[in-house]
Amino acid sequence: MSRRGHYDIPLKRDATGRFLPWIIALMVYLATLALAASMVLSGLAQRWDTGLSDSLTIQVSPLPDAAAGSLQTRTEQVQRLLETLPGVEAVRPVPREEALALVEPWLGDSALVAELPVPALIEVGLEDGADVAGIRDRVQSTFPAVSVEDPGTWLADLRRLAGTVQWVAVLVVGLIGAVAVAAVVFAASAGFAVHRSEVELLHVLGASDGYVAGQFQRHMLRLALVGGGAGALLALGTLAAMDRAAAGMQAALLPDLELAAIQWAMLLVVPAAAALLAAATARITVLRALGRLP
Fold this sequence. Notes:
By secondary structure, the chain is α+β, with helices and mostly antiparallel strands. It is built from ten helices and four strands. A four-stranded antiparallel beta sheet has the order 2-3-1-4. Helix 1 packs antiparallel against helix 6 and helix 1 crosses helix 8. The longest helix is centred in the middle third of the chain and has 44 residues. The model has no long low-confidence stretch (mean pLDDT 81).
């Protein structure tokens, strides 16, 4: 009774579904961007967590009216103390060139920066379960003008922020999906009402409910693929443009915001999922409408 690409019900001439590709395109565009933002922040938090967990940074500040050489002496004393403390796995004084490189993004690389009294830094690697509070108290009580920075404090805040953003992204994608489902339900219901006489004629000729629902299902799938494909292409183009713009910036102050190849591939799942959701929604909507026929 039906050939591929042919509809017994004239759905292609139906105006009730013409808006659907535009809505699906917008929904897929927004969902893809929300998912990409979640991936970027999650990857950023994971990289920082991997690189900074189980570590401390000791900052030895110059004392007022002290000779330049005393900073080096105090730094060596702090280093020797750290090497004796339990839980400390590795101690590495940060060369002054590396410390100056940390402030260059804000102050530039002029000769003035080289004259700044930059504090000496010591990177400390910790063993699992190290007593961070005990190490901090011991160092700060022994040496004046020495501070201990524990990345774990702001890493916990970063993990919490990343988790919140991921849940917000999931909520946004869910809301977008709900709106898309509502649009498909409206389009399928309107199309069914417009073509009710053709549907009843097919029933008289012996067509099953599944056959009639399949007509609407294929029609909505085609519209969703068109809209979803357009939305995905637009979203990927937007992300590629943002990636290109970020790559061209003086990005010393910016973290790496690039997506991995697998993440780009995962974004392509969004239009496919939207098309399958639209097809399933159309089929269910029409089957329920057929069930209400006398």
